[in-house]
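Hey, I was hoping to borrow your eyes for a little while. A protein chain has come my way and I'm curious about its shape. Take your time with it, there's no hurry, and the full record follows here:
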Amino acid sequence: MQSRVLAILIAVVLALVATAAMVVYVNGADRRAIADQSPVVVLVAKELIKAGTSAADAQTKEQIVQKQIPRESAIAGAFRTWSQLEGKSAAVDIAKGEQLLPTRWVGADEVEGRGLLPIPEDSQALSIGLDATRQVAGFVTPGDNVSIVLTLPTGDGKTKTRFLLQNVRVLAVGTTALSSRTAQGGGRVSQGKGQSLTAITLAVEKQYVERVVHAAVGGDLYLTLMPRNADPARSEGVTDDNVFPDNPE
């Protein structure tokens, strides 16, 4: 009886060892197979990327991943590094699982809309003319987020300054939309008396378009640069009466 139990135990142990050996062999075979295929890393859409989406936004939303695939499965010319996507936007809808190809991603100046970056849904493109000082010394570039600060007369000989809108996307600067990196420092207006104005085209939510136009006609506007997705500043505005802080440091 004891010999039979011992034989059964030995058989079970051998079976477990054989199974483990098989798993190790299969895993090793898979690795060897991939190695034999000279794997490469390509950029792949993790989910649907809508036409007009900038590569920067797609990366922020984690819509793009780097994936290792057999070389024979890689499409010729597919993007392999993040730097290849800099300043580009999706020319068409990019399907989930699709390898990113240069023919389906274009520079900002090639995006549909005559040089404009894509206009978000429920927004309209609106241009305002500002001198260099009022657009952060010329450092406002397409793709940036800005706030619009408005100063208006209050009717009693005084003025009030307040944020009009915040987190507004810049679609173009001047007559040509360039990527943020390439536009910086190029084609800016000079400062001083008699300086010319630069058209700044903004994506303004349609319910605020009339307010911005009214403000541009009747008041003075300044733009401030904002970090992407920054929390808006909370303020009731500043007048001639409360411009100085109560407790200056």
